[in-house]
Amino acid sequence: MADSDQDTVNDPLRVAVIGLGYFGARHAQVYATHPAAKLVAVCDVDAALGERVAAETGAAAYADFAAMLARGDVDAVSVCMPDRLHEEAAVAVAGADKAMLLEKPLAHEAAAARRIVQAVEAAGTRLMVGHILRFDPRYVQVYEASAPEAIGEIVHVRAERTGIRATAARLGARTSILFYMGVHDIDAMQWVARSRIAQVFARKREVLGTGNEDSLFAVVTFENGAIGAIAYSWAWPDGLTNGYRAALEIVGTRSAAYMTCADQGFYTVGDTSISGGDTHLWPSINGRIVGDLADEIDHFIRATRSGAPYVQAYAEALDAIPVLDALARSAESGQPVEVDRG
User: Are residues 226 and 304 in the same domain?
Assistant: First the structure.
C-alpha cells in the first residue's frame, strides 16, 4: 500500500526515541506533533535532558533504554545515538520486536552494521535507516533524471560536501568525516548510478587538531564501469553561510543532471556579516518541524502502520558502510582498496 493510501491501522503508532541530541530532539518533536503517532517515551543518558524533552512532549523519560524497551506500549523506536553506539541499542530494539528508524549511518563499521542487520532479520522486525537525502526533492529529482533510459551509459558521478570547523570540533573523535558526512554521498552516488562502488583511492589531511580528518578526497570506480569523484571537508571557517555546502552531478552518454545546496534561498544580512537559513532539511515553521526530516519520519510512521515497504531497503543502507571502511583504509595506506562486502 502506498503512503498516500488509506492507513490500515486506526490507532496511532506508539513511538519512543533513544538519544536526545541534535537529531533525537527533533525526532521527538516531530513524533509529538504527528497526527498518526504518539510519543510515549524518550531516553537519554543525560537524565536532565530526558526530563526536559519529556516535559516538552508529554512523554515518559528514561535514562536506560533497556527499561524503556520493556514497556508494553511501544510499537516503534527512533535510535538517534552517535554512530559508534548504534549497535548495542539497535540490537536491543530488534530483540524487543520493535520497528526501528535508525539514524544514519547504519553503524560505524561494516562488521557492526552486519550484526545489526542480522539481529533485525533474526527477530523478523522492520528497519529503516534515516538517509534523509532519499526525501530531499533535489536529490530525488537527480535520481529520476538519471534513469537509464534518460541518461544512457553513465560516464561519471561527482559528489562534494563541505562543513565548518565547529562541527568537527563539536563531534571530536566520536565519529569521522566519512561516517558523519560521507555516508550521505556514498549512498546517493550508488543510488543515482544504479551501481555499487567496487574500488576506492582516497587521500586525507589532518592539520586542525579537531580529532577528525579535515579533508578527504577520493576517486572511485563503480561495478558498471563508471568513475566517480568525492570531495569532503569540514575545514571551512565557521562563517560559511548555512554551515555547509553539497553538490551532486551525474553525466551519461545521453544527458546529465546536477544539484547544489549552496543556496537555500534565504539570507539575513548585517553590516559586517551574512548568514543563511534552513529551508529544506528541518526548518521550524509555524511551530512545527517541516521539510526533509519531517517527510522521512512521516514515511516511517505511515509505512510502519500500513505494512508498506520503506522507500529505501535496509540492504541499500548497509551497502554504503563497506565503501566507507574501504575509503578509511585507503586514506591510511595511500593505496587503492577494493570494497569488501563479505
Answer: no
